[in-house]
Amino acid sequence: MYGIGAVKYKGSPVGYIAKNSFDMGGVKPEAAEIEAEQVPGAPVLVIAQSNGKIAPKFDMIQLNFESLHQMLGGTIHKEGEKVVGWTAPRDAVVMEGPWELSLVSGQSILIPSATLLSDLAGKLTLTETAKIEVELKVTAPTTEGVPPYGVFATASLPTEWSESKGWLLPKTVTDAPAAG
């Protein structure tokens, strides 16, 4: 898997991602190692505490009024039908929803539920641009049995992955890998 082709929030592309800014982030799996006095040098039991997690981070650099609203919340201002401005939200905003990371290599990483943490950042010079720094905190979907993320061929996304079906993934039957 390689190369960001498109990043979509609630089915809509978010714009250009700054070169070399995308990082899958995340946390390695955690386990408690139980050691015994009688067995030096190795644990006698390993108790899994949590699976590994992803926490994508990236800089979105295609800024316009609509993208500021999409990624930071706030209010769009119009004169007739023409969008002429954006203002930041006054109160803390929690933006949650589905994310799709379409890769150049032909796969898509689908995240049914993630909390969006973002801020307006960057430099306003003639050699750099403003940007929205984005971090996604993947959360467990509220639908029972739906996994927190999945990887599918972009040309064969699951039928559950649509706005009308709630941006879901196929339910997990078993989490245990096949013995082999």
Q: Summary?
A:
The protein is 4% helix and 40% strand. With 180 residues, it is mainly beta.
Question: How would you describe this protein?
Answer:
The chain is mainly beta and 180 residues long. Helices cover 4% and strands 40% of the residues. It has one helix at 65-72, and strands at residues 4-9, 12-13, 30-34, 45-50, 57-60, 75-79, 82-87, 95-103, 107-122, 130-138, 150-153. The strands form 3 sheets. Strands 1, 2, 5, 8, 9, 10 and 11 form a 7-stranded antiparallel β-sheet that branches. Strands 3-4 form a two-stranded antiparallel sheet. A hairpin with a 2-residue loop joins strand 6 (75-79) and strand 7. The longest helix is centred in the middle third of the chain and has 8 residues, at 65-72. It is globular, with a radius of gyration of 20 Å.
Chain-wise SSE layout:
Layout: E1 4-9, E2 12-13, E3 30-34, E4 45-50, E5 57-60, H1 65-72, E6 75-79, E7 82-87, E8 95-103, E9 107-122, E10 130-138, E11 150-153
- Quote the distance from N terminus to C terminus: 24 Å
Approximate shape = globular
Q: Would you tell me the overall average pLDDT?
A: 92
Q: Return the string of H and E elements.
A: EEEEEHEEEEEE
> How many separate structural domains?
1
Q: Could you describe the largest sheet, including whether it forms a barrel? A: 7 strands, antiparallel
Low-confidence stretches: none
The class by helix and strand makeup works out as mainly beta
Number of helices: 1
Work out the radius of gyration: 20 Å
Strand content: 35-45%
* Total beta strands: 11
Binned, the helix content reads: under 10%
What is the oligomeric state here? single chain
